[in-house]
Amino acid sequence: MAPFDLNSDEEYSEDDVVNEYEIEEHRVSEDDDDEVSNPPVFNSSMVYDPNFVLGMKFGTKAEFRKAVQSHAISTKRNLKFVKNDKIRVYVRCNESDCSWRMNALKMPKEDTFQLREYNPNHSCPPTFHVKNVKTGWLSERYAHKFQSDPNRHVKGFRLDVINDIRCHVSKDQAYRAKVKALKMLEGSPDAQYCKLWAYVEELRNSNPGSTIMLGSDNENGEIRFSRLYVCFDALKKGFLLGCRRIIGVDGCHLKGPYGGVLLTVVGTDPNNNLYPIAYAIVCKEMRETWEWFLTALKLDLEIVRPHEYTFMSDKQKGLIQAFEEAFPDSEHRFCVRHLHNNFKNAGFRGISFKNALWKAARATTEGEFADRMKEMRQLSENAANWFDDKPPNQWSRSHFSEHNKCDMLLNNVCESFNSCILDARDKPIITMSEWIREFLMKRLQENRDKAQSRWKGRLCPKIKKFLKKTRRK
């Protein structure tokens, strides 16, 4: 007979069917209970390292089954459940000639099960391939290994488990155990979407002045999540008080079971460090979601003079059209690194074309820019013509607006922020939002403490270094 699956919810076989005569024959009576004086109670904290004693009581049948499973793994034997119903659990060794046996019966008027028969001696040798090693047991036993390191590699986890229990664990078992452990630690994605409305309300109560908007769609009478916008009051005030008026915009894909896109806007603080402003979680990256996100940002930051602000992006899908609707008077820069990639895809590859592009991008005057474009035209007329529909104020310093006081050519602030939150992008929505919130809160406090303890004078450290470097030239 094959061993009974400890994690299975399948119906029992004909051997497990119990008739009324058998139940009366094996029912534990109060007189039988007197036979065992002061029976020990199983310590649930020792469920993964059980020590059985005849007469021992177990709080539930599930606790007894888990203890039996742990015993099978620790002794490296295959155990099977030959009877498993509401009032009794009979366990035997899978080897037919082995005398090891264990019978537990339900006590009257209680959910407690008591060990009524126990022969601890095995006449069979231990085995490395123990069939009682199940995914559920592994996920519960080793969930702590993923609590501090959710990105722990399955290969290393599998080797650690094999060295610990000295039993075979397949790659699929290790992978499924990791998935179940993370689900226990972080919660079910479906359940988190159901709790999202309560989470948003709690965010509003604990962060006065913050803007948190939750959108939903009604599909066939069923309410479904659509979008979430978050801009904390502390970040909003910090940007308006001290940051430059240049904002990087970017989007990155989420890696959870339901996908989605995380839209972010990141500014630059007085020390040339990234300064997160707001983020949004949407189902798809398209013109409508970008327009909604940028409009919410415009109202949130109370931007009444859009021409004084500059936005930088990588030309995401639908973003240009959204900017034309939300910020028609603002300057819009494109990341030169992505511009160069498009330049290469157009057929203009090689170091000479790359250097010509970057020289034109770094030109500080309109005359210098014209000279650099002449040099590019000497390399290739088609290469110079490729920039005809790309205005210089979108990618060259020579034509940048003076309102933002920033000559940034790359959208590194957004790329760096997306890299910082990489560990959060594969988590369920509430867990991810909390991870990002805690990251932003810690970052603000750490920068505040650093500035208070280390910075001397009115200028920030990076600005001092830049001025010294410029003065030497």
UniProtKB/TrEMBL annotation:
UniProt superkingdom: Eukaryota
Full protein name: Uncharacterized protein
Pfam family, one: DBD_Tnp_Mut
Record domain Transposase MuDR plant: where: 52-114
Keyword Heme among record annotations: no
Annotated ranges, domain MULE transposase: 247-342
Keywords, alphabetical: DNA recombination, DNA-binding, Transposition
